[in-house]
Every structure is written in C-alpha cells, then in structure tokens.
Write a structure and sequence with these properties.
It is globular, with a radius of gyration of 16 Å. The strands form two sheets. A seven-stranded mixed beta sheet has the order 3-2-1-4-7-5-8, sandwiched between helices. The chain has a two-stranded parallel ribbon with strand order 6-9. Helix 5 (122-139) runs parallel beside helix 8 (204-219). Helix content is 38%, strand content 17%. By secondary structure, it is α/β, with parallel strands linked by helices. Bound molecules: guanosine-5'-triphosphate and magnesium ion (MG). Magnesium ion binds at residues 81, 83, 85, 195.
C-alpha cells in the first residue's frame, strides 16, 4: 500500500525508533521521520534504515507534525509515534475506514469497547477524559480519545487546515479544525502499548495547561 505515508515524529528516540522501523519492515508504507537536526543520536540510530529524514523548522511536537504533513506526497498519511506505542497491525482497520467508509480523518481510540492502554497513568486517563469531554461539549466533537493523536487522514484535507500549534496542543487543534472544516471524522479501536525505551516528552501539568489554553483560544476563534 504505497498511497500511505507514516509521519513519525521523533525526539531522543535512539532506542525505540530502530525497533519501530524493524516492526514496519513488512509493511509497504512510506516513512517520514521528523526530528531536530541537533538530535544526532536518533539520526545515527536509523542511518541504515529505508526512510526519509526531515528536519523540523523549529522545535516541538506540533512543529514536527506540521512539517511532516507538508512533506506528504501520498493520498493518505498517518501520524505514527517513534516510541513503539502504536501497533502497525491497527493501520489496516484505519485504512479500511478511510477508504470504504470515505472518512477524511480517522482518530484511533483507547477508550472504546475492547480497547485499552498499557501506558496510561491515572493522570493521563483523567486528563484525557476531561479534554475529550470539553471537545464534545464545546466543539461537538465525537472523538473518544482526543489526546491520543494516532490519526490517519486524507492528505489534501489536512493540508487545508492551517495548523499552527508548535507544542502538544496540536492534539486538540487538529480535530477541532477538522470538525470546523466539516470533514468526515470517524474513530477506530486501538490498544496502546508501553513505550519501548527512553523518556516520555509530555509533562502532564505544563502540557495540560497549554492544551487547555489552546482550547479556550480555539473556542473564541482567536
Ligand atoms: N520531532 C519531535 N518529536 C517529538 C517531540 N516531542 C515528542 N515527540 C515524539 O512524539 C511522539 C509522542 O511523544 P511521547 O513522549 O511518546 O508522548 P506520550 O505518548 O504522551 O508519552 P509516553 O506515555 O511516554 O509514550 C514520540 O514519538 C516522541 O518522540 C518534539 O518536540 N519533536
Ligand atoms: Mg508515547
């Protein structure tokens, strides 16, 4: 399936990223890795792999994903973490939804029936619940796991969204702007695995507050 590009944001993932690329070996997707040019250890760790390395313009998770979306030349793309927490076997179901059900955006979810997470803490679980609920109430979003950001999309639709978030508030900006643009959104069942190695980049308090402020700004269309 060469009409799908995986956008893989990576920051200090020298242990996990090679293993993620090993697991993807039998899948015929393009792989675009987005990282900072200064992240020499991660770059060194994947030098023998078949993938495209793209340097982000600035810093941050959202900045990397924005650059990643701009880089896609295939009809579809999927945001795919470099830490091993996403299972590539789940991509098949997401592809079916986007092709057969003609969805524009497919948001994978850890919180539907028969879904789950090996990586959740009580803080991330409650945080996610609150932000997903705010999304439902204030933006009429039907996604069930707003912060997961395991998202497949029709590239032309995502490129239309004028995304600006450089940090983790990208997680809410993407579904809110997709909904506002009236694109067809659906969800897909997922089970998140633990990260393979390395440290998480999200800080619950700092990034939670940034996401909250971003939602308030988006609500007032500022
Ligand atoms: N290029 C780039 N990638 C980033 C940045 N911040 C996070 N990432 C990557 O984005 C993905 C998600 O970040 P994580 O740290 O795993 O966030 P998380 O899933 O909430 O945290 P865990 O629970 O530890 O998995 C990983 O592949 C990171 O390497 C960044 O500033 N730049
Ligand atoms: Mg992770």
């Amino acid at each position: 399936m060469s009409d799908l590009t995986l956008i893989i944001p990576a920051k200090n993932e020298k242990e996990s990223l090679p293993k993620v690329l090993d697991e993807l070996e039998n899948f015929n997707f393009k792989r675009n890795i987005i990282l900072e040019a200064s992240d020499e250890l991660t770059i060194e760790s994947i030098k023998n792999y078949d993938c495209q390395i793209i340097y982000q313009d600035s810093r941050g998770y959202g900045d990397a994903l924005k650059k990643g979306i701009e880089s896609v030349e295939t009809e579809f793309f999927c945001i795919f973490n470099a830490d091993g927490s996403f299972d590539p076997k789940e991509l098949d179901l997401m592809i079916k939804k986007i092709k057969n059900d003609k969805c524009d955006f497919v948001f994978a979810s850890r919180y539907e029936k028969n879904c789950g997470s090996d990586d959740d803490t009580i803080i991330t679980l409650v945080g996610n619940y609150i932000f997903t609920y705010l999304g439902k109430i204030f933006f009429k979003l039907k996604v069930t796991d707003i912060l997961y950001t395991f998202v497949m999309a029709r590239t032309s639709c995502a490129k239309n969204l004028q995304l600006t978030a450089k940090d983790f508030s990208f997680c809410v900006e993407l579904p809110i702007k997709a909904k506002r643009a009236d694109y067809k959104i659906c969800t897909s069942k997922s089970h998140e695995r633990s990260r393979i190695a390395g440290e998480k980049k999200v800080n619950a308090i700092r990034d939670g507050l940034k996401i909250l402020f971003s939602m308030i700004k988006l609500f007032f269309r500022y």
